[in-house]
Amino acid sequence: xxxxxxxxxxxxxxxxxxxxxxxxxxxxxxxxxxxxxxxxxxxxxxxxxxxxxxxxxxxxxxxxxxxxxxxxxxxxxxxxxxxxxxxxxxxxxxxxxxxxxxxxxxxxxxxxxxxxxxxxxxxxxxxxxxxxxxxxxxxxxxxxxxxxxxxxxxxxxxxxxxxxxxxxxxxxxxxxxxxxxxxxxxxxxxxxxxxxxxxxxxxxxxxxxxxxxxxxxxxxxxxxxxxxxxxxxxxxxxxxxxxxxxxxxxxxxxxxxxxxxxxxxxxxxxxxxxxxxxxxxxxxxxxxxxxxxxxxxxxxxxxxxxxxxxxxxxxxxxxxxxxxxxxxxxxxxxxxxxxxxxxxxxxxx
Length: 349
Known about the structure:
Layout: H1 5-11, H2 18-29, H3 35-54, H4 65-76, H5 82-101, H6 120-123, H7 131-144, H8 149-160, H9 164-169, E1 175-176, E2 181-184, E3 202-205, H10 208-220, E4 236-237, E5 240-241, H11 244-254, H12 290-303, H13 308-315, H14 319-326, H15 331-337, H16 339-343
Antiparallel strand pairs: 1-2, 2-3, 4-5
Helix pairs in contact: 2-3, 3-5, 7-8, 8-10, 8-12
């Protein structure tokens, strides 16, 4: 009886544990992908390694399609959302494909990993920061914390719809106040990669108010410091270039209702609420991270009448992804945004 090609390949392959295979995968992939993509791999793949240990799968070479199905069922039954499950399986698929290329598992094994069926509602996250809340926060920051790092970060993300990684990648020399724009560059060799690498490079127009705020921040609040590569970041702390953790903490902090003097919508007392303390601000159910802020900013751009193609270029997101994940306008808002186009139609009936 002829031996299958897959059997020939795996029979001569080294016997490697799932944990060792993951370690090798990480070593190869880390320099090749963005930091956020690499982080996103880690949790679901650690869950997969635990699954292998629990099911006495000693070597990655022994993985079967049924094992992959069982892992999907286990994650599905853990109570996670369908979209999270899809993301977990996507990470596993990348890992299994890597194992195929390394000759550790059968060819086409990654194709046996089936995504869950998602509805439109499953695919779209509705977490965003409403426009009225955004305006209230901006008003408070403008009055009480004008041109601080916190104020400037919040306003910049709202004004541009950029990602955290983009914000921290900007250097002082990338800002052109006279011509009112910011350059965005992919510089992985000095630890400021962009999510979409070279395709993420672009120039973003800034309006007068944003330039005035940036100018005042630079003049009065920015720490005049360099990073470990001798570059001068635009957004800085005393330690140098701002980190994504610091950006996230600042956004969690200012989006708590109590921060701007609003009554707690969750019935909590300040003295008993951990989230009232700034380092724990992310524990407030009403606080949001920079990503929902980006979603809100993109929606605001669309609501002002900016064409989707232009919003796509400005925020560095494809029109298809924009439609599925970032456009949270109501049907009424979409109708009103189309009004100018409709008024250009021939009205003779």
